[in-house]
TrEMBL record:
UniProt cross-references to CDD domains, sorted A to Z: HNHc
Lineage summary: Bacteria, Pseudomonadati, Pseudomonadota, Alphaproteobacteria, Hyphomicrobiales
Gene3D superfamilies tied to this protein: 1.10.30.50
Superkingdom in the source lineage: Bacteria
InterPro entries in alphabetical order: HNH, HNH_nuc, SRA_ScoMcrA
Record field: transmembrane: none
SMART domains linked to this entry: HNHc (SM00507)
Listed name of the protein: HNH endonuclease
A Pfam family hit: HNH
Recorded GO MF terms: endonuclease activity; nucleic acid binding; zinc ion binding
């Protein structure tokens, strides 16, 4: 799945193709550009000298160790940026360092949770290390096939305010979970946010103000969630910045000549609705 100029498994020059375009820190494993809605992380073999290494778990989760060379890892700077990237409306990109060859784009991921474990720091002392549970973005809108526990369906609520409260709580929390539980948690969070956004739209596109084009097999008006602050549309986000739009408006926002203006208008519409709902 491509993200902007990057295609999965292709190799890029970190300085020329990434920092020259997006800026951000040119050293270290976590890059947080200030002018772009993206967090860029680099994984490689350097952590192995400290007794740990990033990599895939059997559940299909990429375990990424946070930053901090001495003492316990804490949620500051890059670590906080990864944990909060969804609610901050920033895409999370992962590149694998390949030495002189460059960096290989592994894809867009989402932080589904985190865990802590004991690992040596740069000086050889044991400390608490943060391990982020990262899931490919295109897998966040469906349960993992390997999960052995059912997804808990989001019950329908009549009260829109109640749905909104649940959506805000879900979007703003990154739980301390790992493995299959992290995958389930991300899917459930996404479902809660989407349920509220679709209920807020009440069957009418929040962009063109026309009724949904058809009714689904579940008997609901068909509208698509659109993340107004992000380049992609995967995973949960702050529901105040997610719109429910018809397929035509969705495609026009992403690919149309006037897509940017249409997106800005949608942001204004959502803002007015949220001012009323959240009052």
């Amino acid at each position: 799945m491509p993200w902007g100029p990057f295609y999965e498994q292709r190799v890029y020059n970190r300085r020329r193709d990434i920092h020259a375009v997006f800026g951000g820190q040119q050293q270290g494993g976590i890059c947080t550009p200030s002018q772009h809605p993206v967090i860029i992380v680099f994984t490689g073999s350097s952590g192995e000298q400290h007794g740990y290494a990033d990599g895939w778990s059997p559940e299909g989760v990429f375990r990424y160790f946070g930053e901090g060379q001495v003492g316990d890892m804490v949620f500051e700077r890059g670590n906080r940026a990864i944990r909060d990237h969804l609610v901050n409306g920033k895409d999370l990109l992962v590149f694998q360092t390949r030495g002189r060859e460059g960096v290989r784009f592994l894809g867009q991921f989402e932080c589904a949770g985190y865990s802590t474990e004991s690992a040596p720091d740069r000086e050889g002392n044991q400390r608490s290390a943060i391990v982020f549970e990262l899931i490919p973005a295109d897998a966040s809108d469906k349960p993992a096939e390997a999960d052995d526990q059912p997804i808990v369906e989001v019950e329908l609520e009549v009260d829109l305010t109640g749905l909104r409260t649940r959506a805000l709580e879900a979007a703003r929390s990154t739980p301390q979970v790992a493995g299959a539980a992290a995958r389930r948690s991300l899917y459930q969070r996404s479902a809660i946010v989407r349920r509220y956004v679709l209920a807020r739209a009440a069957g009418v596109c929040e962009s063109c103000n026309e009724p949904a084009p058809f009714i689904t097999l579940q008997g609901e008006p068909y509208l698509e969630p659109h993340h107004t602050r992000r380049l992609s549309d995967g995973g949960p986000d702050d529901p105040r910045f997610v719109g429910a739009v018809c397929p035509d408006c969705h495609r026009e926002i992403h690919h149309g000549q006037h897509g940017r203006a249409k997106n800005e208008a949608l942001i204004e519409t959502i803002s007015r609705k949220e001012a009323v709902t959240g009052a």
